[in-house]
Amino acid sequence: xxxxxxxxxxxxxxxxRYGVRFGVxxxxxxxxxxxxFDAIPRQIPANEWEMLEKGLIQRVKALNLFLYDxxxxxxxxxxxxxxxxxxxxxKGYMPECEDITPTKNIYAHIAGIDLVQAKDGRWxxxxxxxxxxxxxxxxxxxxxxxxxxxxQTFRDNLIADNRNYGDLLxxxxxxxxxxxxxxxxxxxxxxxxxxxxxxxxxxxxxSVLAFPGEIIVEDGITYYIGLxxxxxxxxxxxxxxxxxxxxxxxxxxxxxxxxxxxxxxxKAGNVGVINALGNGVADDKGIYYFVxxxxxxxxxxxxxxxxAPTYLPFFKEDFDYILNNIEKLVIKDVAEAGGYGVMxxxxxxxxxxxxxxxxxxxxxxxxxxxxxxxxxxLDIIDETGNPSPRKCDLRAFVISGKETKVWKSGLxxxxxxxxxFVVNSSQGGGFKDTWIME
Amino acid sequence: xxxxxxxxxxNCLFWLGRYAERGYLMLHLMRRAYDEVIDVPVGEVxxxxxxxxxxVYVSSEFTTSYQMMAQIYDPNTVTSLRSxxxxxxxNAIILRSEIYSESFSYIExxxxxxxxxxxxxxxxxxxxxPITDWLLAFWGSIRERTYGQIYALLEIGRLIEHSDMIIRFxxxxxxxxxxxxxxxxxxxxxxxxxxxAKVELFEKQINEKEKYEKHDKDYKDFILTILNEIVLx
Lengths: 438, 233
Prior knowledge:
- The structure holds 2 protein chains of 2 kinds.
- By secondary structure, chain A is α+β, with helices and mostly antiparallel strands.
- Chain A has 2 domains: 2-302 and 401-436, no CATH class; 310-371, 2-Layer Sandwich (Dna Ligase, domain 1), CATH 3.30.1490.
- Chain A is built from 14 helices and 21 strands.
- In chain A, strand 18 and strand 19 (404-406) form a beta hairpin.
- The longest helix of chain A has 26 residues, at 46-71.
- In chain B, 70% of the residues lie in helices and 0% in strands.
- Chain B has helices at 7-36, 48-53, 65-72, 81-92, 96-119, 129-145, 148-168, 173-189, 196-206, 209-213, 217-227.
């Protein structure tokens, strides 16, 4: 540990040198900032990881089956396991995806599952991210740099190598591509908050980093437009552009980012889109409540990993509980992400609590409530150079290609302030490497 | 490694090559001018010739080495060293997957240093020496890691800028001929990247050695214009 601590400045300087940044818009102005890295890693013992790995694979398999079902047979709704209000009325449900089967029938190729560890040691799922989960590049590059700065630490400890994330992605992309053409990572552009990740993953997967305007569809085939208008067929697109902006002819017509007619090419099975369109219906905060039920329904298994205790005001019993206990719950807007729309009852004034209650009464489908989990603190080295506890979560990355695999690492995010539970980078949080011990 | 590049990336590779060479040569020439100004008689405007050749606005207020240093940090002057390094980064940032993080890191280092030195109003030119070192390392990394059209575009950019500076700063014709001979290798290998009519015109013009040696301003402006229109990206 001493080696890690003494190399802290050196590691941060290397990260700066590699341009490990993320962009933030404040008052309409774009700024890039370093993602604060803490040298003390989260360590997960091998036996604990084994359980997490099984649980995560189980969860993602069920979510993939759910996505197929919801856009085809709809059995889970017909059998009453999930009310239709949580599927077809979800903001993430896309009627345009009805009856479309993505290449190899995989929807969530890259799933970012957020977990926390409670003080009693239990791991609980906080959120599923099945659209464009980001963050893997940070621990990936942090490890590369830390190994150089602290060789003895890595010699003395048996830590699973996490530098294979690019290989895992490429393997999956090649599987989806199926030899049809080149692999591309499609970025909205350099002013996107996660642009570092887009460009770094393109480098590490050997994919072409494509910008808006560089991909076209002709006669249902997707092409990358090279120098002198040379067309090269695209077999798989790892898109980092949201569904609604992906094809202006199918979705948001004002989108300048999108690829006109991509939907036509996708629908015909001529190009693989990673992650599939329409996944938002499965990572809606409202549907999260039903994931353990999905596991039982599709896999006929007991969930290995549990959700954080969650209440849906849509159900009368939960509605009453929430209104009577709001001051000890955390309320989340199902339509928000990135730490926005999260309200802790204990931090609100009486007037604000009343306002929130009224919002819930007015739109019960829009909200969920969760018990505040007293999750474990991990030490970081603060500005004074001393250890200081912070709330941390873990984003695990599950890659579904020929097989479903969990990347043996993850993004451990910590809160900026000692008393905060919000760990999102957009809210000023930092990150740690995640060591899976062997 | 992917080798398919779009028109926009080709343009960025070319301009990254140009700006990296411009930054390197500008610092080299500034160190020379910085030294020469020590001997400029009091009352004369130093650097005017140097700055004019770089198309930098010349003010009669530039009377000391320190004022010249202030000029190179100006983010609002497109020809300032700071702007050139920012432009390098604007191009490099979208090319990480073509040039690799290692090459990219040298540009990042240059940008961080020029910003820090501008903020601290550093007036000693020796403090900018790492920029020269990193730009040389950048080219070393490029030669090590890139090939084919990606390498060619960067190198064409470097050679065009090199030739441009040779003309601007009245270097001997043989320096320009050496640089042009290197460009011609790329013209042969990647003809679709060049406007062949302009190539022929440029070659014809630089064969008129007398005009070149006389430092005829109209002639030099003319060949500079042609040189800057030769590459089609």
